[in-house]
Each structure stands twice: as C-alpha cells, then as structure tokens.
Amino acid sequence: MTIKSIPGAARNTRQRAEVVGLLDELDEFRSAQGLHAQLRDQQAAVGLTTVYRTLQALVDAGEVDTVRLPSGEQLYRRCSRTHHHHLVCRECGRTVEVVGPAVEKWTSRIAAQHGFTEVSHTLEIVGICDGCSSE
Predict the structure, then answer these.
(1) How far apart (Å, rounded) are the C-alpha atoms in residues 115 and 39?
(2) Measuring CA to CA, how many Å separate 119 from each of 10, 16, 32?
(3) Do the strands 124-127 and 95-98 form a parallel or antiparallel pair, or are they unpaired?
(4) Residues 6+ apart with CB under 8 A from 6
(5) Calpha distance 133→115 (Å, rounded)
(6) What global pTM score does this model have?
(7) What is the CATH number of the domain that holds 110?
(8) Given pLDDT bands bounded at 50, 70 and 90, which one contains residue 5?
(9) Which residue of 23, 29, 33, 93 shows the fewest CB atoms closer than 10 Å?
C-alpha cells in the first residue's frame, strides 16, 4: 500500500493512510466514529484517536469538508476542490453540494462595505430532505 501524504501531519503512517483511503472511497459525509467503525469492520488496526487526528489534519489542510448537524455531531467528507456550500438534512444527515453565486456576490459586497479583505465563508443550509419528508 502506498502511504498518501497528509499535509500538516506529523507523520504519514499506515493508519493515517487507511483513514484517507476510506474517505476517498466514500461519497457521503461520515462521523469520526462511523469511519472508525467501518475501518474496524475492514480489519484495519486504526485507533479512534488516530481517526480524529487525521481528520483534523485533513480539515486544516483543506482536504476535507466538515458539516455540523443540528445535534452537534461533526461529519467529514472529501469534497470537490471548488468552493461550494451544503444542503444538510437534519433528520438523516444527507448532504448535497451546491454552488451559490449570489452568496459569493453578497459576501464580497458586504465585506467591501466594511473594509474587510481576504474574506472566506462557509454556508450550510439545514432542512429536511424529500426522503425524510415523505416518511
């Protein structure tokens, strides 16, 4: 197995590579505990602390997006490298990436009005998805 480099990580170990490899396989957001359970099911010897530390290094490096559910649970996923926002279902956690040009224009305008530069932002729109609404 080739160990993938994790920017900002103190060491790139086999365990960290297992976490990155799993994230690369998944399309949906997952909790650290969910990732850890799946790694355990795959017989990967990776501790929960390593999962949390690896996720934080990937978040810090901009390699992983996070969303926080209304319950407070933090979820993680490898996302596209382009700037985007998320629709998040508060019932099941389903997440959809969306691009919002109007939000980008509004953010730039408000920042300029107040003399801010080098502005960044995140936007999560929380609601109930169609699958949960129909139940």
Answers:
(1) 47
(2) 29, 31, 29
(3) unpaired
(4) 12, 16, 20, 54, 57, 58, 61, 63
(5) 42
(6) 0.65
(7) 3.30.1490.190
(8) low
(9) 33
